[in-house]
């Protein structure tokens, strides 16, 4: 039996409701450091964010999901590769309109991934890369660029190499095929490495080709920001070495740079808890005060896991809200003050973080 097409329109009639198609005369490609997609909530945040922009493919870094994997969602397809738990990982978010255009996805390493896609006969190879940071040793950097070399050698289509190279190319007076005049800041060692790498592979650093309004420029503040936050979360005895020079710091530290919370910090924070305060939903104030020596070690494990995953327990987002009568007619709710009682463990964790950052803010 022959199957009729899903849409039948008489030859002489005009189709008032044609199927959705898209003629591609522009391809919108972007790259973004997502700083973690390990939870469902973060995926929802990403989905909401990309609804605001035009995109065909977005290369993503620091996915922090273990793969390789290809996952289909309502409006996009997520391809990624990752190996080290809660670290690194790269991939792509592909507009679902191009589902049938994807030829292949290959996760080379947790720092390099390749997408081959066919845009109406125009074959394109997109390489997403995530370079080690400035704190990495030279062997890691050389291994990263060696992987890029091998990947580029095995590619025969038009190539776009993009991602987070943790580099500052800077402003240059020499305008040539590699860099143009619209760089930003002062070139660092990683930036020089990238500039030196580009000619051998016939690459142009596209970010330097377009002028941007200064208010719309974003950059990773390095090394000052790294040192600032590294000290901020470090041993309390070292914090008096920080000099506040009114520099803006807009980059949060990686877990690698954060000193683990130890038992002594927890014990000191518990001793500062006040028993007369109303407890939250976990009702643990008295237990913490009574058995702090026993609880210090498991609490340290939990708190460090929270720092590592950048994610707090769901219970910590819940509060008990009670109304305290103020004045006037007691049954009028506007005459009451709402008080939010948060979980005691949440307040304990915040107390430790507050103790660390108070000397420098």
Automatic annotation (TrEMBL):
<dbReference type="InterPro" id="IPR036691">
    <property type="entry name" value="Endo/exonu/phosph_ase_sf"/>
</dbReference>
<dbReference type="InterPro" id="IPR005135">
    <property type="entry name" value="Endo/exonuclease/phosphatase"/>
</dbReference>
<feature type="domain" description="Endonuclease/exonuclease/phosphatase">
    <location>
        <begin position="30"/>
        <end position="167"/>
    </location>
</feature>
<dbReference type="GO" id="GO:0003824">
    <property type="term" value="F:catalytic activity"/>
</dbReference>
<protein>
    <submittedName>
        <fullName>Craniofacial development protein 2</fullName>
    </submittedName>
</protein>
<dbReference type="Pfam" id="PF03372">
    <property type="entry name" value="Exo_endo_phos"/>
</dbReference>
């Amino acid at each position: 039996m022959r199957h009729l097409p899903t849409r039948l329109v008489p030859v002489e009639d005009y189709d008032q409701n044609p199927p959705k198609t898209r003629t591609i005369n522009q391809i919108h490609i972007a790259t973004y450091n997502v700083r973690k997609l390990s939870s469902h909530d973060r995926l929802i945040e990403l989905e909401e964010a990309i609804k605001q922009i035009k995109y065909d493919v977005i290369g993503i870094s620091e996915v922090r999901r273990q793969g390789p994997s290809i996952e289909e969602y309502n409006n996009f397809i997520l391809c990624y590769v990752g190996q080290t738990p809660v670290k690194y990982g790269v991939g792509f978010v592909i507009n679902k309109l191009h589902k049938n255009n994807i030829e292949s996805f290959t996760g080379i390493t947790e720092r390099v991934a390749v997408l081959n896609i066919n845009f109406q006969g125009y074959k394109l190879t997109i390489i997403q890369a995530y370079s080690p940071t400035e704190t990495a040793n030279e062997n890691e950097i050389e291994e990263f660029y060696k992987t890029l070399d091998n990947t580029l050698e095995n590619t025969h289509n038009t190539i776009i190499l993009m991602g987070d190279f943790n580099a500052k190319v800077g402003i240059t007076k020499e305008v040539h095929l590699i860099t143009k005049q619209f760089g930003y800041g002062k070139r660092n060692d990683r930036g020089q490495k990238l500039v030196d790498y580009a000619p051998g592979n016939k690459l142009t650093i596209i970010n330097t080709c377009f002028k941007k309004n200064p208010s719309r420029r974003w950059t990773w503040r390095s090394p000052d920001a790294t040192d600032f936050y590294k000290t901020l979360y470090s041993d309390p005895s070292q914090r008096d070495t920080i000099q506040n020079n009114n520099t803006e710091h807009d980059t949060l530290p990686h877990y690698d740079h954060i000193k683990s919370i130890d038992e002594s910090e927890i014990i000191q924070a518990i001793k500062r808890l006040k028993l007369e305060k109303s407890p939250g939903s976990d009702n643990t104030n008295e237990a913490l005060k009574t058995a702090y020596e026993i609880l210090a070690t498991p609490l340290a494990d939990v708190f460090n896991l929270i720092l590592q995953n950048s994610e707090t327990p769901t219970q910590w987002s819940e509060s008990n809200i009670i109304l305290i009568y103020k004045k006037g007619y007691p049954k009028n709710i506007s005459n009451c003050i709402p008080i939010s009682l948060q979980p005691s463990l949440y307040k304990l964790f915040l107390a430790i973080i507050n103790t660390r950052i108070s000397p420098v803010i």
